[in-house]
Structure formats: structure tokens, C-alpha cells
Amino acid sequence: MELQSSSTASASEALERFVLFLTLGETINELYLIDPMLPPELLPAHWSGRAILQRLSERLGQIIEAIPAGSDYAKFVK
């Protein structure tokens, strides 16, 4: 999903972005519950949990920035 500038987003696009924010946020929270959060030396060599969580968190930040500041949803994410 390509995100337009937040200043040009319509009300329906703002709602869609907010729903995406909630969905991705819930997914990230669920992943934190199953990630063992062990030090790197105790994880398998192929463990990618931290990298995945980092990428998802970065994407969540992009979604937050794409929600227009004047929308009804901005107060819940900023």
C-alpha cells in the first residue's frame, strides 16, 4: 500500500490508515508476546524476530505520519 501525503488524504483514506494502524499495532503486540527477547547469543543463528519487529515498527511510524493531523483519528496516534 502506497501512502499519499497526509495533507491530501480524504476522510475515507484517513479512516483506512487508522484501521491499518490499529491492525498493524495489534500484530506487533502479538509478536512481542511470542518473541522470547533473549540475548542474541542464545537465539538460533537464523532468528529474525528483532529485525521483523523493527521493520514493522518503522512501517507503523510511516502510517502514523500519513494520518492527517486534522483528522478525527490523529489524536489517537500522535
Helix-strand blueprint:
Blueprint: H1 11-34, H2 49-66, H3 74-77
Helix pairs in contact: 1-2
DSSP summary: helix tally: 3
Uncertain residue ranges? none
Shape: elongated
Name the structural class: mainly alpha
Order of helices and strands: HHH
Distance between the termini: 21 Å
Say how many strands there are.
Answer: 0
Largest sheet: none
Mean of all residue-level pLDDT scores: 90
Q: What is the alpha-carbon Rg in Å?
A: 15 Å
Query: What percentage of the residues does DSSP assign to strands (E)?
Result: under 5%
Features:
59% helix; single chain; mainly alpha; elongated; 78 residues; 3 helices
Folded structure, characterized:
The protein has 78 residues and is mainly alpha-helical. 59% of the residues lie in helices and 0% in strands. The chain has 3 helices and no strands. The chain has helices at 11-34, 49-66, 74-77. Helix 1 runs antiparallel to helix 2. The longest helix is centred in the N-terminal third of the chain and has 24 residues, at 11-34. The relative contact order is 0.23. The model has no long low-confidence stretch (mean pLDDT 90).
Summarize the entry for a quick read.
59% of the residues lie in helices and 0% in strands.
